[in-house]
Amino acid sequence: MSFPWANVYKPSHPFMQWMDEKLPLPRLVYNSLGAGYPVPRNLNYFWNFGVLAGVCLMIQILTGVILAMHYSVNADSAFASTEHIMRDVNWGWMLRYAHANGASAFFVVVYIHIFRGFFYGSYKAPREMIWLLGVTIFLLMMATAFMGYVLPWGQMSFWGTQVITGLFSAIPLVGDALHQWLLGGFAPDNAALNRFFSLHFLLPFVILGVVILHVWSLHIPGSSNPTGVDVKTESDTVPFHPYYTAKDGFGLGVFLLFYCGLLFFAPNALGHPDNYIPANPLQTPAHIVPEWYFWPYYAILRAFTQNILFIPAKLMGVLAMFSSILIWFFLPWLDRSPVRSGHFRPTFRKFYWVLLVDVAVLGWCGGAPAEEPYVMISQVAAIYYFLHFLVILPVVSSIERPDPLPFSITEAVLGKDDAAALGAAA
Amino acid sequence: MVRIIAFLAGLFFAGALLYTVLLGAYSFITEPPAPTAEKWVHARFPEKELHLASDGPFGTFDNTQQLQRGFQVYTEVCSNCHSLKYVAFRDLKALGYNDDEVKAIAAKYKVPAFDPNTGEVKSNTGVAADHFPPVVYGGQGNPPDLSLITKARHGGAIYVHSLLTGFQPQPAELLKQFPEATTPTGLYFNPYFANLNIAMPPPLTADGQVSYKDGTVATKDQMAQDVSAFLVWTAEPKLGKRHQTGWAVELFLLFATVLGYMAYQNVWRDKKH
Ligand code: HEM
Questions:
Q1: Whose CA is closest to B151, among A374, A236, A272, A54?
Q2: Among the four residues A57, A63, A156, A274, which has the most C-beta atoms within 10 Å?
Q3: Is the CB of A240 under 6 A from ligand 1?
Q4: Residues B102 and B78 in one domain
């Protein structure tokens, strides 16, 4: 959909007119990324990250498809084939580093995208579906990243697989059978490596499909904005092109500067040295840790160290870990405040920052060895995490008195300036 | 209904954790975690400083003299126990050897070759395209392949250099505090090694153990530095090219981003936002 004042696609060239009749693809692009899509004029840089996430997905697919041409899917040769890519394939080192660090960059971008949503209440009506699809994308991303990390078949690949697939054995009754079925054996080996490769190749395209749905559902209400106030008139919006194409272009440049800095100057900084040791089923690494983007969930998993009644600690850890993300699906209904933006919600805003710190603490504990005091800290942080979503958000949203909202986006943008002009004149 | 179930499940998790953390805190206070010999030693032996031409964002492998010395240390000392299987002889050209020298180096090695007709494993004289062959080791422990060692350990070359120069008698204070930490026979105390006792006998035992062709004095520390530099190269022969490419890419991106910023400002110049 769009607003009534949206520009209408009028092809002038006869070929484009012909095309528009047969297959109105240019019209679709014009209406979704072009001058035919009105967007709030007051978006800040946090609204760049959706497009950046799309770029990351493209980078991953492109580098991944080429890597797959040189990679060998076999437990005996996978590690050597990654070294072959690093040493013998033309620009292979760049492809591999681009892909490995591309995953990290993708998660950085998506985390910012999600926390933008948390702050500005982007998940609220009428954008619940965008949010639900977003959480689905995030779950798919996690599965993809995990399976990708297995492919080089280093020590962390192997032992990470052991730990993560082992989680399924915590399920009562069917757990062990399920674990073996997932792995295709009793321990990670060729069968597991082959199915993980197959899925790792497939899932990015599934993600692409869900991203298309995500953006489609975004185009129905259109983007929200930092005030959270609905678009009312034409002066509240600008056409996506050239305004946001220009801004996204600049944002892309800044992103690529950081990403290439990582890729070319510290490509192993975010990885674990143990993954440069070939997988060895007989030698357990001192600390098994996943990649940094999984640390908060890993901390929640490991926070459960005591069986309660008849429920084993491991099972609770697994359930809590999955719930910590599944809970996001309920966010539009847990936060009942009609005001979207955190700018106008003084109490909510404080808890938002506490949550951000809490997740950082969880991440820090998840990367640390499973020793005291990290375990106790992660337990306290995990308690707070669940309380935030299940108690604090619903309660705050019913008792908080929001600050007055601007009448419109235009007023929010021009009002301040007028006030400044008046002040200067006086 | 769903809301109530979700709420109760969340409270259950929080309650279980609260119980666990209280229990944990209680035992943390009543019996605090005992200090370990490893922590005691690692805190007192920070890794040694090491500066190599490959360090930093401008790092290259231009110091081929040092790399050749390191290769010599590897060949004369380490290769008795450690393989270097991801490195091919032809790669050595990057260290400044010419084709004939590379061929001569390769010819000194016997490379296993599988004959598909007879099913026999023979050994051929090495050629430039071969990789360094596996090494048979009869002693205690498993010497790891060294090709990737500087990427496979925290600290990289700094760690390898510290480890090689770190062999020493156990500090008396350590044995006083942790009598059970006495190095078992057949192992060697090394404060830089994760569990303090390594199966590798000190490989660099005397100054002048190798005689360098370029006249550099082969102190133990010099040999350790050289072989560490060499092992940075074996772990990532493309590191120099990576840095070089990186600068070109960053300069281009900086230029493009500045242009992008100007375009952005230009497009928005009379729209308040
Ligand atoms: C492959 C990953 C993703 C891609 C390519 C993507 C793409 C986009 C794009 C292009 C936009 C519009 C621009 C913007 O608002 O930044 C957007 C908006 C949005 N995305 Fe995503 N997204 C991804 C993942 C996610 C995830 C994981 C979530 C949440 C869990 C999410 C939630 C949202 C929401 C709520 C909006 C609307 C924001 C608003 O209008 O205020 N997205 N997404």
A1: A272
A2: A156
A3: no
A4: no
